[in-house]
Amino acid sequence: MSTRVASHAGSWYSSSRSTLNRELDQWLSEVPSEIEGKQLPIPGARVIIAPHAGYSYSGPAAAWAYKSLDLSKAKRVFLLGPSHALYLAGCALSKHSRWATPLGDLVLDTETIAELKESGKFDTMSTKTDETEHSMEMHIPYIYKIMSQTFSSPDEYPPLIPILVGNTSASVEKDYGALLAPYLADPTSVFVVSSDFCHWGLRFQYTYYLPASPSAHATGYELKRRDKDPTDPRICESIGRLDKMAMDAIETGKHQDFLDNLEETGNTVCGRHPIGVVMAALEVLEKDGKLGAEDKGRFKFIRYERSSEVEEVSDSSVSYASAVAIL
């Protein structure tokens, strides 16, 4: 059995089992025991969006999604993450059968992976591509930790289906959404979507700014290096508005609304394509009448943070958000 190594352990997060356990426990303990009157984990919350930066940045925000996640009926976990290093027009699957973490190994669902591969819609990642990408790896320790709190033995842990999502078009996202919808409809399937939100700064080539306006959709513009640092609002407040607009679009449950928001603002949501695929899958379930109540299958954002509060054009920040959807 081939194992995908924990290639980012020791740099993006601790390679020490005891240290990593202690950090994850601490971040999870800082999340309230209930959110908006709902005890955690939230029954039926089997789809989440959570960030994937180094744990010193995104670990606390991710804890909100993972403490909310309901694994009580889980028999498999789909993990969708964006591709940072490999250009890919579609999606790709892992060729490994296990995924190592400092806490222990997770088993991959090779049967479901083979089933998806038979569709002819998926490439297979090389080991180099798999181990270079961090967007999914940053979720593996959290998944292992939550499984250890839910199941009595590693033998009972649900297997994993990692899916690397490339630079997919709207129509391709709909195609993959339709393909994954039957799995999403299964109450024993859990979906984890990996995404950071706004990457703001000259180093990210994104300095979009929204000036103060009564309208949530004020016309923005790119700040230049030599521009005077704006104060109405501060840059960090503008970034917050940009992210709020993106999150609001996601919460509508309409895939096209999210795409329109990204087109309007250019917001650098790096997991836009995995989010788009899952939103497209949820729309299929809604169309087929498989969601029931109106609020089912709609993402609800429960946590939002930024790596720093940008005041000057020369500064930068990355935003982290956690969301859950109840099915």
From TrEMBL:
CDD domains named among the record's database cross-references: MEMO_like
Domain of life the protein comes from: Eukaryota
Family membership noted in the UniProt record: Belongs to the MEMO1 family.
NCBIfam families the record matches: AmmeMemoSam_B (TIGR04336)
Identification of the protein by name: DUF52-containing protein
Organism name: Coleophoma cylindrospora
